[in-house]
Design goal:
Layout (H helix, E strand, L loop, with lengths): L2 H21 L4 H40 L20 H25 L3 H29 L5 H22 L5 H10 L1 H13 L1 H12 L13 H36 L4 H26 L1
Helix pairs in contact: 1-4, 2-3, 2-8, 2-9, 2-10, 3-4, 3-5, 3-7, 3-9, 4-5, 5-6, 5-7, 7-9, 8-9, 9-10
């Protein structure tokens, strides 16, 4: 990025900030509450994905070891061997979640009248996360078909991300607050569809978790899962179900946030946003307490 282009962006966001201070000041508290509520949903999803990543690694490594006594080294399978690195499917889902979070962070920053530098940084984060999520989805497509439903989850996520990418790239080119806001709102349908896709993909996540619990040759259960494994799997089911409920609430809250950002903020819009955010936050705290048990 050249120094001239950087100065242009800073000037643009400075003008944007000045307009927002007078136009959106009444919505600051409500949008801050929304951002906090959405982030608690993100934390639950992140926690779920830690378990899905471990399960995906177990399932794939088990399959690799069955093909040969000493498997050849495949660089495309490297992520399965390194703990702390997401395998492809889990990495694709987590990258999509990060894109959703950064979109909401930018939406909230815009409404809250954040400083020019902060908004510029948020836009850069959103752009980077979307590009990274597209790449992660494309990388996961090769091996996703081995898990029923995972191929559709990954491909649908990639479709939503690809449709929103050009809209996000255009945001920095607009020279007025109104154009910036309209373009950010225009990206909402694709981001909403991404959230819906993640919800629809939870059965595939559960299938990964279930397969990792199977013990080959076990006679303890027709499913091949031990009693301890079944207990652990039922806990996985509860945590995944809790995330689905949070995603449903997050969809409602996101719609309220975008509605409030579409035009001059009315008292009714702010009340709706506040109510949806509070419901999401309360539910997220209940789920967090359940996770600790």
């Amino acid at each position: 990025m050249t120094a001239v282009f950087l100065r242009i962006r800073i000037l643009f966001f400075t003008l944007l900030f000045a307009a927002l201070v007078t136009g959106c000041a009444r919505g600051v508290a409500e949008f801050q509450l929304y951002a906090q509520a959405f982030n608690t949903q993100f934390e639950q999803g992140d926690s779920i994905l830690n378990g899905v990543a471990r399960a995906e690694r177990i399932v794939v490594l088990r399959r690799i070891k069955q093909t040969a006594s000493i498997a050849a080294f495949d660089p495309d399978q490297a992520a399965y061997y390194v703990d702390g690195v997401d395998p492809p499917i889990s990495g694709s889902i987590r990258a999509s979640l990060k894109s959703l979070k950064s979109y909401n962070d930018l939406l909230g920053g815009l409404a809250n009248g954040e400083a020019a530098e902060a908004l510029s940084n948020r836009l850069g984060t959103l752009t980077t996360n979307v590009v990274g999520a597209v790449a992660a989805s494309q990388a996961a497509l090769g091996g996703a078909g081995a898990i029923p439903g995972a191929d559709k989850l990954v491909s649908d996520s990639a479709k939503s991300l690809l449709s929103v990418s050009p809209l996000i790239k255009q945001i920095a080119t607009f020279a007025s607050r109104e154009a910036f806001r309209q373009q950010l709102v225009a990206a909402y349908p694709a981001m909403r569809e991404l959230l819906v896709t993640l919800r629809a993909g939870t059965p595939a996540m559960f299938e990964i978790l279930k397969r990792s619990r199977v013990t080959r040759g076990s006679l303890e259960s027709p499913s091949g899962i031990s009693s301890d494994g079944q207990t652990a799997l039922e806990k996985d089911r509860v945590m995944l179900a809790a995330w689905v409920i949070l995603l449903d609430k997050a969809l409602i809250a996101m719609e309220a946030a975008v509605t409030a950002a579409m035009a001059d903020i009315s008292a009714a819009d702010l009340a709706s946003l506040s109510e949806a955010s509070i419901e999401l936050r309360v539910l997220a705290e209940q789920v967090k307490a359940l996770r600790i048990k």
